């Protein structure tokens, strides 16, 4: 949405509107009791969940640093990671609300339109460095990772040709494809091997992924 994030309290049918000054909201992520939203102005807005307040969410601060829209957000290893059209990935401390490190290497928008998937690892000096790069023929819209029943990592890679490709890591061996009518920008796993994709047709698609 533009200049707004909507939240619903399930079970009570309550709706809350969270103001965003930075225009279109492209991405959302949560860390414990904090909600983060990436916006068109390059800022990441944050709110704390308050069980004692009728407002439910209280605005905390705005994370500044990106010079282009924040296209994607994710949380992992206790850190918040953001990707932007400025070609950088930033790692944030989600509790102190400060940028810990800026990762460069992509040549275009990070979700990423430069057609590459980059794996980052911690160096001996304690910095994140590129350890592997996979080039995709089509521009990449979004990625999503999960483990199969054997504990092996599987990467879902949504490309601009409306195909989601399944890769086994770290070899990037292709294990299958999911075909869509429009670009798949949202992906999420569910129970019993189900997998959800969201695209521009405005109709969510449920796939059964045999792990």
TrEMBL record:
InterPro entries attached here?
WD40/YVTN_repeat-like_dom_sf (IPR015943), WD40_repeat_dom_sf (IPR036322), WD40_rpt (IPR001680), WDR86-like (IPR044715)
The residues forming a coiled coil are: none
| WD repeat start and end residues | 63-93
Keywords from the UniProt entry = WD repeat
Entry's Gene3D superfamilies? YVTN repeat-like/Quinoprotein amine dehydrogenase
Please give the SUPFAM superfamilies that the UniProt record associates with this protein: WD40 repeat-like (SSF50978)
Alphabetized Pfam families for the sequence: WD40 (PF00400)
The reply to whether tRNA processing figures as a keyword in the UniProt entry is no
* PANTHER family assigned: PTHR44489, ZINC FINGER CCCH DOMAIN-CONTAINING PROTEIN 63
- Give the protein's recorded name: Uncharacterized protein
**Organism whose genome encodes this protein:** Erythroxylum novogranatense
